[in-house]
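Input sequence (112 aa), recorded before submission:
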Amino acid sequence: MSITVTVIDGVSGRPAEGVVVAIVGQPAGEQPLRLHGFTDAKGEFAYSPAADQQSNGQCYIVELDVDAYFASLGMMAGYKQIAISVRVFDTRADYRMGALITPFAHATWSIR
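Predicted structure, token format:
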């Protein structure tokens, strides 16, 4: 299983490189986790836990730090953070989600 997040900067129309992404959850049989990193040049960040885990509807929260991203570009954002709750039913599946962000609006989508 993997969770891949793609972030698009709606102001420039390009992938949003450098957005802080955090994934928060508790995979079955493991300690709670909070993993974070930055989107790459394609605007992507990926998380892959151990392959043998069972999920049974486990939820993960994906957080995007919109404020820090736009502040790095010299803009003030109306949102500090976007948090999206994702339910994982099948640990053999890959989950892709995306976000289009601007300083004062956002849209998210999911593909499985």
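Checked by second reader. The chain has a mean pLDDT of 88.
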